[in-house]
Amino acid sequence: MNLAEIRQNLRDYKLQTEKLRLENYFGQNPAKSREEIEEIFSDLFTFSTVESLKNAAENAAEHTEIEQHGRKILLQISQLGCLQNQTKEISREIEKCRKSVSVKFQDEVLTPANVSEKIKTEENPDVRSELFTRLIEAENICSDLIFERFSQFHENSKKLGFENLRGIFEEISGVEFQNFAAKAEKFLESTEEIYFRLLAEICAETKNLQFSDFLFLNEKIERKSIYAGRHLPFFYAQILENFGFSTGKISQIKLKKVSKYKQTKSFAPNVPDDIFLCFSVKDGAENYLRFLQNFGIAQKNGWTSKSLLKRFPEFVFAPDDCLGTAYGFLFQSLLGDESFLRKSFSVKEEKHINKIIKENNFRLLFETRREVLRFLAEAEIYSSEKPDFEHIWQKSAENFTNNLGFNFKKEQIIFEVSSRNAAQKNVRSRLFAYGLREYFREKYDFLWWNRRAAFEELIDFWNTAERHRAEAMADLIGFETSFDLLAESF
Question: Is 175-490 assigned to CATH 2.40.40.10?
């Protein structure tokens, strides 16, 4: 395949897999199965294609800067896809294994989702703990498969010319793990006092808390009467109206109501013309946070340049896909903004709104610290060809427990980590989001979310999709991503 064919196939592959995601979400019979799509486009992710793209990237000096950059991104997409392709069989085994997990409790056979829901509403802490322990024990039947997949990732990383799995992620992100880990650990230290103060203000008893207690506490602060799922279309319209836009002007993004049993998600089966923001009618702050996350992702996809997609699809589907998530975090941060809350929700009493802000900041800080801890665990796994999983699980469980205030079991940690560098990307997305928020506050004041010019500037950013890494995009806009700023934001 030549470069034009690779770009065309990449565009078609990504849009077909996204269409499949949407069809599966709605329970429809897909036009093509995942296996059929992977077979059609299998040539994108072979060692021979990787070598071809490596040669193209190395011999691009006579081409424009954007072409040179595009070839590097194409190579990274192919390398990562090749890595995933080489482990697809065991990945399917893991998926099948996880779907088979069930928990027996008091004459009931429960799915993992059923267990989580029961824990959230169970008043007895001992029963909560017992349920969660049984869930972890049941899910650990898949652990050997997960260990084996990591071994295969390391083996195939070497075939691609990297020392280990960390090497390929450092190449894609442009971030050196050791330095990033040192800054991340300092972030944990600098936010420790405010985090545990928020926890103490929200939870009367903070000793010997189990992770099952977190699930229960999280449900307690859902504020369902305030965050009504059925009101999300009005909330969506209000966000746009704050910026001086209307839903009619953004017709490429379709709002779709789904059952409270589904998660709020966004899909982009035809960038940028057909974007679906599917919202659950479930009540509660968590669903609103998820909605705001997907609001940012949908807007980025809906305003992506058609020309960019046609000429350089690699910049739309880049493997270092931090920016869409970052725009989601930017909008999530509005639930910690007093002025936004007063305008958007019928909360008038000072004490009441202060409590809600504390609860939302607790959620956001908990998740940020948790992602940092996930990254530290992932970094150890990615850095060693033969990770000492027992040591990593034990050490990580202690880190999670000490830094989050809830007891994590070592058997639980395996389900806290990913094989896609997801945690680091989520942390970097937050760094970009809060840096961008500060940039907007300085430029448009604290009511930036009420300024049309701010949204128009965002459209300019969204237009470039993922052409730039988060750190490079921040530099172009005029700010730096900073752990110190992220810490100060809380």
Answer: no
